[in-house]
Amino acid sequence: MPNFDEIDQRVQEIDAPRTAKRKAACKTIKERAGRRAALLEELAATERDIGDALATASDVMDVNEAALITEVPASDLNHCLAAHQTTRTKRKRSTSGADPKNSTSREKPTARTPRNHHAQTPSELSPPPTDSATESEHVAAEVA
User: Fold this and answer.
1) Around Cβ 3, how many Cβ atoms within 10 Å?
2) Contact 138, 144 (CB under 8 A)
């Protein structure tokens, strides 16, 4: 009967081929995933560059003309231009003043008073009713 050390040794021998295959697969996956990430970053930068070039030349040439001249499909150029425009609109706007979440002020915000102090009546808020007979009478009265 084998002792505990012999059992451990036998299990390791049986598992060794499987473990070696798993290690090799994981190393390959990690290597390829890193390469893929680098290529995706490079592709995104290239698409932004193409989009920048298209945007810069937009006053003298449209996407269809660029596609015709370069023989690059217009759909690809539109994709690059959209990527260029998307990256430009995703930038956060700077906020003026302190961060309201971290503010130490305990003052309650006050409601803003509209600049136009004239209160509108309900008749001013809704359009006048349109009655064809009434409109005809007004037109006839104005003509006469």
Assistant:
1) 8
2) no
